[in-house]
């Protein structure tokens, strides 16, 4: 791509940005096809005993996605964003088939291993590409759209899969959704998506580049890992908050359907409750991402973690459909405050020269939360009960919010009010 044609800003790259929003919706839909159905499939068709055993698929998904996130950032810098995106969709091809035809739980676990790799490569890459396109002023807005599309699709597909399972059975119909998503996403990623690495290079070349001034641009992979995990208070705070956030999501994925079903709710009602959490989460990010560009990142992250703690406490206490609907909606609202804002904070602090790798490290820790949620939720539920597992997640969310409030600094360079839409436009 010629340097004279590269421009930063949402308006200048609206077509490609919108296309990437659609692709990320398909990424989220791959998770949504499982959320309502798999926990019930584990109990009713595979007759699994013990919550820890049941949550093996969430554990494997979380570990494979977390590890792949790290490599997605490194490979995006080395080979480009688009090849990594296409590779992620190629890996997803067998997943719906395995879920439909599995006659042993091991095949379900194997499908989720591949699904985790798919999610790590595709979701990480769409995040990186959107940040590349919009430049520094609109990162929160960009991440709001990205995450809203992904988790909105999780919600819609979860509800639709629950309806299809109630009407036509747990298999195969709900998983045909995933098969359609893979085909469409692979076509779009191959034929329509364009490489965005030159946009990051353009931003890095701009003089006086805001919060990046004076930063080293040639950090090693190890230095990026240490800085994002431990030494930078904002990057490391984002990493731990992201981990706890996805611990909550991983626990909800594996245990919420069982908790709701234990109260006698029908499968379609369980599907609605399971979908309500990511629905509010997804829609809310359209507002919270943009608000973080105006108000800053730290206070939204702190508030969001505390709201999640409150919502989980309610879920552990109540036991009816209306009460759970309120609680899961509140959980979605708290997550919406946190999710795009954490990614925007990483983009604020990390120099474009190593930003993709820092995003990969952050997402490594954030998506380790799936595995942590599976282990914590399974062990606590087996020792005590399902509600005790939710109480444990509430306590961790409270501790995370307090840690962010005490340690994280504000990352958003709000003093720089220059218009960004025409940076790099040499026409």
Description:
Its main location: membrane. With 427 residues, the chain is an all-alpha fold. Helix 1 packs parallel to helix 8 (139-168), helix 4 (56-79) runs antiparallel to helix 16 (355-383) and helix 8 (139-168) runs antiparallel to helix 13. It has a single domain, classed as Growth Hormone, Chain: A (Up-down Bundle). The longest helix is centred in the N-terminal third of the chain and has 30 residues, at 105-134. The two termini are 15 Å apart. Helices cover 78% and strands 0% of the residues. The chain has helices at residues 14-35, 37-44, 51-54, 56-79, 81-92, 95-101, 105-134, 139-168, 173-191, 197-205, 221-231, 233-262, 267-295, 298-317, 321-349, 355-383, 386-407.
Query: Runs with pLDDT <50, length 5+?
Result: 415-427
Terminus-to-terminus distance: 15 Å
* C-alpha-based Rg, rounded: 20 Å
Q: Which structural class should the secondary elements be placed in?
A: mainly alpha
Protein name: MFS transporter
Organism: Saccharopolyspora endophytica
Membrane topology: Multi-pass membrane protein
Subcellular location: Cell membrane
